[in-house]
Design brief:
By secondary structure, the chain is α+β, with helices and mostly antiparallel strands. It has one domain: Deoxyribonuclease I, Chain A, CATH 3.60.10.10. Helix content is 23%, strand content 26%. It is built from 7 helices and 12 strands. The chain has helices at residues 2-8, 22-35, 44-47, 109-118, 167-177, 182-186, 209-215; strands at 11-15, 40-43, 57-61, 68-72, 86-93, 96-104, 138-144, 179-181, 203-208, 216-221, 235-239, 253-255. The strands form 3 sheets. Strands 4-5-6-7-9-8 form a 6-stranded mixed beta sheet. The protein has a 3-stranded antiparallel beta sheet with strand order 1-3-2. A 3-stranded antiparallel beta sheet has the order 10-11-12. α1 crosses α2 and α4 packs parallel to α5. InterPro entries: Endo/exonu/phosph_ase_sf.
């Protein structure tokens, strides 16, 4: 699986790793490095060393990834509600600061609001830089948010808004970071569903406006390929890093 993924993608985010023992994590790290000796992997279990066969997220950057100076910042924003459900990485993309978020929100509606309220909105880790263009950091958030964003387009059975299911809190977090649903931006009236039973769209790639408008080349739901035993429809996107020096390799893209 890792060889196929890392040969074509520079960023891979996975949810529900469900490790029951630390050896399983180490085994997966080994397989990743066999597939790509220069790959870097970041695991939620590093900050939350709980191996109970539940939850877990990982972000893997291939050796071709354009991200530099990557630092795992998860421990700085850790809260109990985020245990093995969230990763936060700080990196450089060209001369810009970027934060990478991987999210696996609770399935239970009553728990989602508290989870989304626990996600960070401040990113002053003492290493922020003043960039020549005066722009703030970019954000890229991917994962299984277990929340629909539209009562008609994102679910098979249209319904009235249901308070207390986490959507309002998720929207507050997205607004705080300036994040936009990339797939819906490109497909404003399309209904495609990604959940295991294909009744909801709950898997997302959220981008800040500068990434979305200036660098998004493609975003789609992958229906014609499978990499392992995934039951969700992966989200794949392609960014053209026009602010980076020209490279011979293909632009990077990512399934989640």
């Amino acid at each position: 699986m890792y060889e196929r993924l890392l040969s074509t993608h520079q960023l891979v985010a996975l949810q529900e790793t469900k490790f029951s023992e630390e050896d399983s994590l180490q085994t997966n790290q080994h397989y990743i490095h066999v597939a790509d000796s220069g790959a870097r992997s970041f695991w939620s279990n590093t900050t939350s060393p709980v191996f109970n066969g539940k939850r877990g997220v990982v972000l893997v950057l291939s050796s071709a990834s354009p991200f530099r100076d990557v630092v795992d910042r998860t421990e700085h924003v850790y809260k109990t509600q985020l245990r093995n459900r969230y990763l936060l990485l700080e990196a450089k993309l060209g001369d810009r600061q970027i934060f990478l978020h991987v999210v696996y929100a609770p399935v239970e509606p009553a728990r989602r609001g508290e989870f989304f309220r626990s996600l960070p909105t401040r990113f002053d880790f003492g290493a922020a830089e003043d960039f020549e263009d005066g722009c703030g950091p970019m954000h890229l958030a991917v994962g299984d948010f277990n929340t629909t964003m539209d009562n008609f387009l994102d679910q098979t059975s249209p319904s009235l808004p249901q308070p207390g299911t986490g959507r309002e809190e998720l929207c507050d977090w997205l607004d705080a970071l300036g994040l936009i649903d990339a797939w819906r931006y490109v497909n404003p009236e399309t209904r495609e569903l990604t959940s295991p039973l294909r009744v909801h769209r709950i898997d997302y790639c959220f981008l800040t406006v500068d990434l979305l408008q200036n660098h998004l080349a493609k975003v789609n739901h992958v229906k014609d390929r499978k990499w392992h035993k995934e039951d969700h429809v992966p989200v794949e996107f392609k960014l053209q890093a026009t602010f980076l020096p020209k490279m011979k390799r293909a632009p990077w893209r990512c399934p989640t």
